[in-house]
Amino acid sequence: MRTRTSLAHAVVGQMLPAGAVKGGAAIKLRVGDQASRLTRDLDAVRAQHHTVESYTTELARRLVEGWHGFTGRLVVREPAEPPGVPDEYVMQPLDVKLSYESQALLTVELELGHDEVGSTEQPRLVLDASIIDVMERLGFPAPDPIPVLAVEHQVAQKLHACTTPDRDGGNERAHDLVDLQILVAADPPDLRQLASVGRRLFDARRVAPWPPKVQTWPGWTERYAAAAEGLDVLPLDEAVAWLNELVEAAEQAADPG
């Protein structure tokens, strides 16, 4: 399942319009299957010049044109309506019905978001060598690197996700601590840029102030253990301390005086 999902993400990534991949899929594209958490969905962000309509129109066209025998059909689903969340912040759910030589393969669940504080302006182009190797062994050409969020933007977004309460007052994002350890080890962020991006993102979302304080939430022990299984990451308490130290280091780099 891991390899099949990664290959599907790499193929769909060849056909995405301007923007960047984010979330767990972006980390998997950076480091490969064995060093990352299992994730089935593909989260992407549309570039500033795209609306949802222009992005999905272009993506549908690209899927029909295909990539080396792979084609797809785009299904636009109804977005959720979480209370108190502005429409522009709601992710647009899409299904990519992926086929090869007209034979149905699988469905990739794609969640489309929008640019926040310039997150798509300077994406990183990545694709782990292990994913390329599998594609070539299957007889396909090497896929092109895929745009993903710059590490400073992805760290800031995951910090916001794992430190702010949901509408029920809880937080189920223990897996973000796993992702952050893997991400920072693979691509250490510029600490001054991280503080700048983090401050602007937290200000724009207007939920909580920067810098955040990382803490454990109810249910995190089990969720963290499940997300961390088989991966080289810290125990939960040490991961919380490590992440708070990262935030503090970013603040110190931004204001050394």
Topology:
Layout: H1 2-13, E1 19-22, H2 23-31, E2 42-46, H3 52-65, E3 70-76, E4 92-100, E5 103-114, E6 124-126, H4 129-137, E7 146-148, H5 151-163, H6 175-186, H7 191-205, H8 220-228, H9 236-254
Parallel strand pairs: 2-5
Antiparallel strand pairs: 1-2, 3-4, 4-5, 6-7
Helix pairs in contact: 2-6, 5-6, 5-7, 6-9, 7-9
Describe this structure in words.
This protein is an alpha+beta fold and 257 residues long. The protein has 2 domains: 2-148, no CATH class; 151-254, no CATH class. The chain has 9 helices and 7 strands; from the N terminus they run αβαβαββββαβααααα. It has a 5-stranded mixed beta sheet with strand order 1-2-5-4-3. A hairpin with a 2-residue loop joins β4 (92-100) and β5. The radius of gyration is 18 Å and the shape is globular. It starts with a helix and ends with a helix. The model has no long low-confidence stretch (mean pLDDT 95).
